[in-house]
Amino acid sequence: MELPANWVIRHSRTYNKDYYFNTVTKESQWDAPVANDTERVRVSHLLVKHAGSRRPSSWREENITRSKDEAFDILKEYQRKIEQGEETLSALATNFSDCSSAKRGGDLGHFERGQMQKPFEDAAFALQVGELSKPVWTDSGVHLILRTA
């Protein structure tokens, strides 16, 4: 059986049976992964909302009043820190993202086309694994997206 890239078979001593392990995402599962699953991605992101966001509040701030320009400037500084190796997206998302995914380091898990806002989806599917997006605008605010699988 041919496995998709980054998947290997390991053996569970606890259950005395084989399982599948992704060496990049560290995900494990009992069922064989689907080969050539190109219409599914996994990303982490960092969201900065502004007063015009569709829901201008978050776990960090009850009432977000910053302008779009201020949100963009904040995100550009996060992007600079990530690109220069000063911070990781996961660390920044955990502390500063306006999305509830902050508690998971910004991880949104796997998703398929049609599940996210179109600009976000288009950017996520255009990225290579390990690649960081430029700022992406949606009705939620402005995002940095890191494709992880």
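The record above closes out task 2.4. Task 2.5 opens with a second protein, given below.
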Amino acid sequence: MARVFVWNCNLPRLPSSWREQLRDLGTYISGALFTIGWWVFIDGLVMSRSTTAVNFGFEDWLPGLLCTLGMIITNSIDLTLLRDDGFGYSSGGLAGKAKLTLFIGIALLAGGVAGSVAILAIKYIVPQVDSSVMYIGVTNVVQTVCLLMASVVLWFVHNSEHDNNYNFVLN
């Protein structure tokens, strides 16, 4: 099976001590984004207790929970599992299972973000609530976007096989 390189990008060469610090910094940034996302959501939850215009229900919790689950699933997969070239009836099919699991994790992340935007539109924008109540819906979108960005940052800093090269390959 021939491989077609879609994008080949040589990243700048960094000293090995900087690479370790960059991985640590990326992990901290990812954790900060995760924390900020949930903190903003809980702030909206606390603010919703002071208003009676909109009820804060399970549908408001669901996008954040989906994104958190998607982040856990996506970042539990090693990049080397996705590059297994074994094909046939006798192969274990580990690469296919890893790709399916990665797809499910990414679908959960995307579904969480899309769900939060849909809830913002249906529950807060269409009824034309005032801006103080609109903040509660915006916190849901901010939360899911922060969780998505945290997942992306964590994926890239922990799954770099080569320290100075990153390839996108179509099989």
